[in-house]
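Lab notebook, bench 4. We co-purified these components, and the gel suggests they stay together. Before we commit to crystallization screens, I want a quick structural picture of the whole thing.
Request: model the full complex, all chains together.
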Amino acid sequence: MARQSKKKTTAASGARPRRSLTRRLLPYLLLIATAGAAVLALYMAHLDHQVRSKFEGTRWKLPAKVYASPLELYAGQDVSEKELITRLRRQGYRRAATIDETGTYNASGAGLALHTRDFQFWNGAQPDRKLRLGFDANGVSSLEAVDGKGDPALIRLDPQLIGSIYPNKGTDRILVKLGEVPPMLPAGLITVEDRHFMSNWGISPRGILRAAIADIKAGAIVQGGSTLTQQLVKNFYLDNQQTLSRKGKEALMAILLDAHYSKEEILEAYLNEVYLGQDGSRAIHGFGLASYFYFQKPVQELQPSEIALLVAMVKGPSYYNPRRHPERARKRRDLVLNMFHEAGFLKDDAWQAAKAKGLGVTSTAARGNTQYPAFIDLVKRQLKGQYKVEDLTEEGLRIFTTLNPTVQAVAQTRVAEGLSRVEQQRGIEADSLESAAVVTSVEGANVLALVGGREQGYAGFNRALDAERQIGSLMKPVDYLTAMMQPAKFNPITPLDDSPLAVKLATGKTWRPGNYSNRSHGENVPAYYALEHSLNIASSRLSLAVGIPNIIDTLDKLGYEGEAPAVPSLALGSVSMSPLEVAQIYNTIATGGYYTPLRAIKDVTTREGEPLNRYPLKLTQTVDAGPAYITTWMMERVARYGTGAGMYSIIDRSKTMAGKTGTTNNLRDAWFAGFGGNRLGVVWVGRDDNDSANLTGATGALPIWSHIMADINTRGIIDTPPDSITQVPLQLIFDPDAANQGAGTNPNRWFANGQNCSNAVKVPFIKGFVPQGLLNCDTDIMRVNAQQNQPAGDRGRAPRDQNNDQGSWFERIF
Amino acid sequence: MKRVPIVAALGLVMAGCASAPPDTRPRTPPAQPSPQSGQTQPLPPSQRQAPPEADRSRPAASRPSREPAATRKPAPPQQAAAVSSPAVMSLMGRADTLASGGHMDDAAATLERALDLEPRNAFIYQRLAAVRLAQGQPGQAEQLARKSNSVAGDNPFVEADNWKLIAEARRTAGDAKGASAASSKAVNYERATSQYSQ
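Here is the predicted assembly.
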């Protein structure tokens, strides 16, 4: 770039006046000519300055690039070959006979051969590798190198580029260097767009003439006849008007550009500047980004048919949009392939093979920003306040997120499918329902997927973040968790009164919670049962006894940042939350009481890969492990035997899951929130106009939740009771519909086997707070236990102080 | 001020990594160097909270007729390698290298990567706790060590190490009393490990 400063003076102020000087001898003409030349010279100097300062000074504004979390490959990873191939294809990997090039794979019965791409991660560069993976029923069974560089224990696939952070109506691009694009790309461009590029002066007189004739014929400017240099000038410096004076300006600038800069420099600028498509309000510029936008892969990996398509599109990216007008695009691509062939850089067989190929563009579903608008929205919000808008939209930062594309795809599909199915099944107007879903990783609190609505890729109202809806019975686990924090008063079998309740409110009104079934379940419902079946009255009584302020305190501890109303109906979920907020509080329960703020971002680096910001795992135990464990145990029963039991028609029965349904007044909102060992999901279904959706949590949200959790192979919960928990095997016989609430006419029969009961369930209690006299193999009905007519001594029912609890247990052991 | 915990925490990280049998592991408990902890050496408080008794304090779960001695459980894992996949072991090895080279942020990030693979692996949390301690974040160190305990199940080996780490973290944070309480818990868990020695 050094040479242009010298050339400037000769090209701009030198050449032209001299030529005009030789024209006429007449003084006045000379005068006029000199004046005209001076004006032109000044104008040229002005243009020259414009051309140079822009070309050299332009650092392209590079929107931050957002990446999904990379797939880790290792022996033991529970990813099947089929799933892996789906993921590879989504990232633009292509099946090939050999894996000599990066971004290729080969599945050949004996496992999968794969050539990964190199990638600059937050902690350094990972080179490309050639690998072979074996699979068994559990997923990846072996991972070995086939490049002789040693077997890696694990390796990250390059992360999928999922979007950019660009200003409204902004342009987006990924810079490429001339030296790193396939040579066929610049050569093809020259062949198709500007055959004499290498020898012309930036303009092509013949082209202009041809265009002028066409324009005169049409009576307007219809044809460009532009060289690559002129096209670059047009894109670079000028607005989109087609006037004669602008054409002149364009030509002059093209000449200046050509005079100052090498053909290579101009070509490289062109590769990065050319407009190649539109993604909503985002303009796709340059081949680097277009390669991802259309083929989801780096430009280096483009195949001849793909290069030809991109070159073909230069003429009119919307007219030849391969997604919208595939036939038109294909016709022009084939034309371009013919030109490639004629020019000699495609041999006969390669030419035929390329023409036989489909367009190969990824579906609309798999392109940049519009695929994950809800998640990108969350990323932006988490970045807000930490970075200036210009930093995000201009500096080319790289943002590494927690999004798992596979989980996201599943969630999106299952939401759309589930809504259509339930609308059909229940005679609900088609497309009247809306939904939102969140999936997290439980430990680590990574947001793996976020669905903002049923229509994929629609960047509208983000319900996962912005639809604040009453949570209904999703609140109950918080009520019961708060109760379990008061172990002297509450445990899983504490009898609760479910008979009608009226509470005088401060407002003078009376609050009368009712059960969904419109009936009472008696005055002695064991607490676990009341949660299992989501009994409103029993739960309200429990909550009032626990204290609404204490419940609000628990909400805070779980990570809720809003203001919950301190009213009795809070017990039944009269607080509005977004699905993401629900995910946060449930995630804290799922981790055993360790609050971890939900994360969408893990790292931010500069364009070069220099780390800027990490978002490390931070956890704080805000809820004691014991109460969290008991609450989870009760939620497991909801899933197994209660309102959530429908999940096991979809999810493998051997997996222990925990969850809770939520339904609000007039069936406006249907919720399900729950978790397995390594995944947590929240699903909301309702209507945007807040009318009744005519769905309960179990009918509307649970099926979607279950399908998502099943599809993503959620692991079951591993039972690890904390030290503060003791488990008592009890016979859980309570049944409000059976004789004597399940105890039958002869309750003594439950005690016939003494402390030897194979049907017992281990019920968790906080250590030191097992109810006095409760023995192994008792029932869950305290009234029945108390009545049974064995000698008191045998049952050890002597009153004991709770502090002596451990002592007396010891006595019995020894 | 910062040097002591760094050295101690690294010691823990490295000790966890060592493949030497547990009995011969160099175990100068980090609890000892501080003179204050010596004053609280008498054991009465620790005996009350003695964790090994956890087993016996679950009478309802075990049948009264049973001899407690007869129910000798298999020893819980004492080394990360016993419960971790080769992938996780590789990441932990990398993290150890990074940590001993002073690259604590990278070590932590590498351990987080391991946690994404095995989110309930107590050994990973323990090492992350040690790294946080070395970074001068005693609060996070304690939380992570507690988390390690919560996923360790009944594993006095892991729990003893975690309580040592917590003691160190508390001492760093200036909580001498809390530190000695944690130390005595560590001692108790360590004692509980003896039930597994043949």
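Residues 176-193 of chain B form the longest helix (18 residues). Worth comparing against the SEC data before the next meeting. Chain B touches chain A at residues 51, 53-54, 56-64, 68, 85-87, 89-91, 105-106, 108-110, 112-113, 115-117, 119-120, 128, 140, 143-144, 146-147, 149-151, 153 (CB under 8 Å).
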